[in-house]
Specification:
The chain is mainly alpha-helical and 338 residues long. The protein contains 13 helices and seven strands. Helix 1 packs antiparallel against helix 4 and helix 7 packs across helix 9.
Length: 338
C-alpha cells in the first residue's frame, strides 16, 4: 500500500516527467490550438479545475503514504500469526470454524480434567455406598441360602432313597469368610460345594471327587426333580441318565422318570430297556448311510413296535422269543398304555 501510494505520487508530482509538469505543456499547446479552433476552448477552461483535482490527489497520496504503519516488526508478527493459523487449519481444519470448534472442545476437556479429583471422590463415595448395599443384600441372601440348604439336603436324601440310594447322607457346605470382590456376582458372595456319603458309615466327602457315574446320574435326576417342582409345564431333558446303572437301580430310575413325566414333559435318551419301558411314549432313532449320505430318522413306536425294540435292547441283534416275552412283561408290569 505504501509502495503504490509513493509510486502514484512520484508519477503524478515528484518526478521530472511527472504528470502535473507534463500537463503544463499540454495546456500551453491546447491554448495555441484553441486560438485556431474554438471547439477546444471548453476543455481549456477546465484546466484549473483539473489541475486542482490532481494536486489534491497528490497531497492525499503523500499524506497517506506518510501515515501508514510500515513497521517490519508488526509485519513479522502478522506473518507469524498467519502461518500459525495455517498450521492449525491443517491439523484441525480445514476451516477456521473447525479450528474454533476444536478449541472449544479442548477447553471443555481441560475444565473436566481440572475437576477430575472432585469427580473421583464422588465416584469413590458412590462405589462405597453401592458396596455397602450389595453386601447387605448378599448377607440376607446368604442367610436364606444357608437355611434353605438344610431343607434341600433332606429333600434330596428322600429323592435318592427312591432311586435305590437309601442311606445316602447329603450336605451343602459353604466356604468360610467373605469371597473377594472379584468373586462377587448377582448370585451373592457364597462359595458352596455338595458333600455326600453314598454308603452308611462313610464320612461326607466332596461329591465331585467320590461319586461314580451311576451315582452322579441319580443325583442329577434327583436335583432336577427338586428344581422343577415349582415350575409346571417345563420340559426336562435327560441324556444318558442311565450311565453306570442297571438292574434294580434302573427300575427305580425309570419309575422316577415316569412319575416326573406325569407333571412335566420329560425327554430321556436311554439304552436300558427297564427305563425305556417306563415311558409314556417310545421313539426309535436310527442313523443310516445311503448313497454316501447319512440320514437320521425318528419313529414313534406302537405297542408291537415297542415290544420288538425292547426285546432288541434286551437280547441284542438276535431277538429271541424269551426276549420278546420279557419285553412284553416289562410293558405289562409298568402299565404303559398301547
Amino acid at each position: 500500500m505504501r509502495r503504490l501510494a509513493d509510486e502514484c505520487y512520484a508519477l503524478l508530482y515528484d518526478r521530472d516527467d511527472a504528470a502535473l509538469a507534463s500537463l503544463g505543456h499540454v495546456w500551453k499547446r491546447l491554448a495555441e490550438l484553441a486560438t485556431l479552433d474554438a471547439r477546444f476552448l471548453p476543455h481549456l477552461e477546465q484546466r484549473d479545475a483539473i489541475k486542482a483535482q490532481l494536486e489534491d490527489l497528490a497531497t492525499l497520496l503523500r499524506g497517506y503514504a506518510a501515515n501508514l504503519d510500515a513497521s517490519p516488526a508488526r509485519l513479522q508478527e502478522v506473518e507469524d500469526r498467519l502461518a500459525a493459523l495455517e498450521r492449525l487449519k491443517r491439523k484441525h481444519g480445514p476451516t477456521l470454524d473447525d479450528v474454533l470448534e476444536r478449541q472449544r472442545a479442548l477447553r471443555a476437556e481441560v475444565e473436566a480434567l481440572g475437576s477430575a479429583g472432585e469427580r473421583a471422590t464422588e465416584a469413590e463415595q458412590r462405589l462405597a455406598a453401592a458396596t455397602e448395599r450389595y453386601l447387605r443384600a448378599a448377607a440376607t441372601l446368604s442367610e436364606a441360602r444357608r437355611q434353605a440348604a438344610g431343607r434341600f439336603a433332606k429333600a434330596l436324601e428322600r429323592q435318592l432313597a427312591d432311586l435305590a440310594m437309601s442311606g445316602t447322607r447329603f450336605e451343602v457346605r459353604f466356604a468360610d469368610g467373605l469371597a473377594g470382590p472379584e468373586r462377587w456376582t448377582a448370585r451373592g458372595t457364597d462359595l458352596a460345594e455338595f458333600y455326600a456319603s453314598p454308603n452308611p458309615g462313610e464320612e461326607l466327602r466332596a461329591l465331585a471327587r467320590i461319586a461314580s457315574g451311576g451315582e452322579i446320574s441319580r443325583v442329577m435326576l434327583a436335583i432336577k426333580n427338586l428344581a422343577s417342582l415349582d415350575e409346571p409345564g417345563k420340559t426336562l431333558v435327560f441324556d444318558e441318565v442311565d450311565a453306570g446303572i442297571g438292574g434294580r437301580v434302573a427300575d427305580a430310575v425309570g419309575r422316577k422318570l415316569r412319575k416326573l413325566g406325569e407333571s412335566y414333559q420329560v425327554l430321556c435318551i436311554t439304552h436300558l430297556p427297564q427305563i425305556a419301558a417306563c415311558g409314556h411314549a417310545h421313539y426309535r432313532i436310527e442313523k443310516r448311510v445311503s448313497r454316501g449320505r447319512t440320514t437320521t430318522s425318528v419313529e414313534r413306536l406302537d405297542r408291537a413296535g415297542r415290544e420288538e425294540e425292547l426285546a432288541r435292547m434286551i437280547g441284542g441283534e438276535t431277538v429271541s422269543a424269551a426276549a420278546k416275552a420279557n419285553a412284553r412283561e416289562m410293558l405289562r408290569t409298568r402299565a404303559v398304555p398301547s
